[in-house]
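The authors assume throughout that readers already know how a fold can be written as discrete tokens. Each protein is reduced to its one-letter sequence and a matching series of backbone shape codes. I therefore recommend that a typical entry be quoted early in the introduction. For illustration, here is how one protein appears when written out as sequence plus structure tokens:
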Amino acid sequence: MSEHATARPVSDTPPERVDVPAHVPAELVHWVDHHNDEVVRRDPVGFMDELREKHRVFYSPAYEGFWAVTRWADQREVFQRSDDFSSSPVGLPGGPGYGGLKMLPIELDPPEHKKYRALINPVFGPRRVGTMEDHIRSTAVDLIENILASGDEIEFMAAYAEQLPTRIFTEMLGLPFEEHKKFIGWVRVLLHSSQIKEGLARKREAGAEITAYLTDLIDRRAADIDTGVDSDDIITLLLGSEVDGEKLTSDEVLRMAFLLFIAGLDSVTAAHGLFFRFLADNPEHRRQIVEDEDVIDGAIEELLRYNSFVNDARTVTHDLEFAGVAMKKGDRVWLHSGAACRDPREFEDPLTVDFLRRPNRHLAFAAGPHRCAGSNLARLELKISLQEWHRRIPDYRVKEGAEIEMHCGGVGGLDTLPLVLG
């Protein structure tokens, strides 16, 4: 085929002509811009359902081009084959880590990845997270009681979904919660903005501001250590950690802190918004939680599956054939977890939400060596939220006529969720 082809759009407004590499078959070209397409913003989780059934893999020319792997088994294989599909963002517009830093350990491949991942595994392991339960619960209860005292209408994202995970994670990282709105603003820009033109410029600016902020914080924590001030925050832990017998440099601590900063301040907020919107719209599912809290663990897994919202990516390390298509070294591969988690080849009747679904091998937390380190903390926060909220507010609904704003990008979710209580 020629180097130029006309994309078959799934977007409302794709370009008329786009550049496509010669090794990409014309019938596999579909324009998908997972940051800006209107169809994506209307449904950041389910917009791939139709394309998944047409193609195991297709090619979008957006953002200098990428392969979209749509199905559960193929995505799981990509996650596990790090020799073929690298986590290093080679060729990604804007460079590594959005702000020019290669984030550790998520943008490393084995065996180097394991060395840095081992430093944070204990922080987010079941034992350590379990010790936080009482504090998370009391924080959740306080937030809910304040909501009840404020009236019968709330903006859920601002009043609760942002508040709980942000309060917990800023404490863990040693950040002042009083500045949380600034932190959330930076992370929104990094994860939700386009990777071209004005969006890329905003990403770079936010990345530079986060880098400067964390650099100063790391310097202050290092000074505290030198003067004997004791602290148990994650940055202090990292400053005392070693890899291959050598203490982490300040740059390595910064790269790890940068990753934790953006990961900890967005994904659990997104999950809360998607969970509570579904429950607000589906009172029969809400009643299951109110009447039997034992169903909550299954509800969390099923709502993570049904609302899976993370967009991951890999880089092809050498020419290969995968899922029936020829991929070239340097090609980008995009993994929309929502497509995989609604795949009927893995999940029977995938668009039906069943809190008793077994098995439920969703990919909401990815798979392989890069499986989400914070999954234990995320599950605990979601469980406590579902318990304490429904003990106090069993009935709620989306405000009639409300326009719910949504986003996609690196993480999909809701910007707003106006609820009426009672």
Notes: The domain at 4-421 is CATH 1.10.630.10 (Cytochrome p450). The first strand starts at residue 4 and ends at 5. Residues 197-226 form the longest helix (30 residues). The chain is about 45% helix and 15% strand.
